[in-house]
Amino acid sequence: MKLKFTKMHGAGNDFVVIDGVTQQIDFTPAQWQLLGDRRFGVGADQILLVEKPTDAGCDFRYRIFNADGGEVEQCGNGSRAFVKFVSEKGLTDKQSITVQTKAGVIVPRLEANGSITVDMGAPVLEPGRVPFDADGLHGEKQGDDTLWPLVLELGGTRESVLISAVSMGNPHAVQVVDDVETAPVELTGPLIEHHSRFPNRVNAGFMQVLDRQHVKLRVFERGVGETLACGTGACAAAVAGIRRGLLDSPVRVDARGGQLSISWAGEGQPVFLTGPAVTVFEGEIEI
Asked: Binding positions for substrate (predicted)?
């Protein structure tokens, strides 16, 4: 079939966005993987599918497929692209929409200045619900957070890193580093992603604290690799930093592809993610 698509990005985190409201879409993991392939397909970190909701009270259903073809729970930067897409395509005239995701309901809002704010819901901090297997580990308290030792096998040697385990609808392991530019993201990112302590795999965040409201962040995303930005990763990093006593809300997060702003009032409260969404081009592909 000929598939119509829109290429978009949020702070460099890029997407293929597909209208599943007016097109019938039922693809296999291999077909999603082909779309995400940068040589043989369109190329993207994630493919976003806009569908009619199955839950009453929601405006749309939002599904996310990583470049490896696997479906995942949440994507913060993608949710902003989602809002811009449905607005530009005339699928809604609302400024604030209620969206059904695999991780639950989110409520993105189109701001007057063109940026988009997403209520990402409250973070999940209980290890078992992230999910993270903390059995037998001795956590280290820092502020209101517990840092967990994660042992990594590096070429016959063992190295332990301290991580915060946070779920923003998808699991994150956040560590603080001295310098994100020299952090071993490509080396240890895959080891953290596939660590046995995370049964659903995990996104590995590397955060450098610049001051109490400003950080740099790199994220090695499960099923994708390092991306230029990660919205849920930015949320998880800000939450971890605030809980550790290192940061104050709001937090500016500098990713390699752009800036995001994260606001969080504390445990039990929702995290708000604000940032840009850009349409790059539209096209068709035989799939």
From this structure: 13, 46, 66, 76-77, 170, 203, 221-222, 231-232
The DSSP secondary-structure symbol of 119 reads E
Please give the Cα distance from 28 to 207 (Å, whole number).
35
- Name the band, by pLDDT with cuts 50, 70 and 90, for residue 136: very high
Q: Extract the tokens encoding 139.
A: 């956590």
Q: Cβ distance 5 to 42 under 8 Å?
A: yes
Contact between residue 215 and residue 237 where contact means Cβ atoms under 8 Å apart: yes
Average confidence (pLDDT) over 142-158: 95
Binding residue positions: 13, 46, 66, 76-77, 170, 203, 221-222, 231-232
Annotated binding site for substrate: 13, 46, 66, 76-77, 170, 203, 221-222, 231-232
* Residue 75 designated active-site: yes
- Which one of 11, 67, 72, 75 is the catalytic residue? 75
**Tens digits of residue pLDDT in 83-125:** 999 999 999 999 999 999 998 999 999 988 889 999 999 999 9
Condensed to tens digits (0 to 9), the pLDDT of residues 187-205 reads 999 999 999 999 999 999 9
Q: What backbone torsions phi and psi does residue 99 show, to the nearest 5 degrees? A: -125, 130
Rounded CA gap, 244 and 258, in Å?
A: 25
> Is 235 part of the annotated catalytic residue set?
no
3-class DSSP state for residue 127? helix
Say what the pTM is. Answer: 0.89
Q: How far apart are CA 96 and CA 17, in angstroms?
A: 19
pLDDT at 199: 98
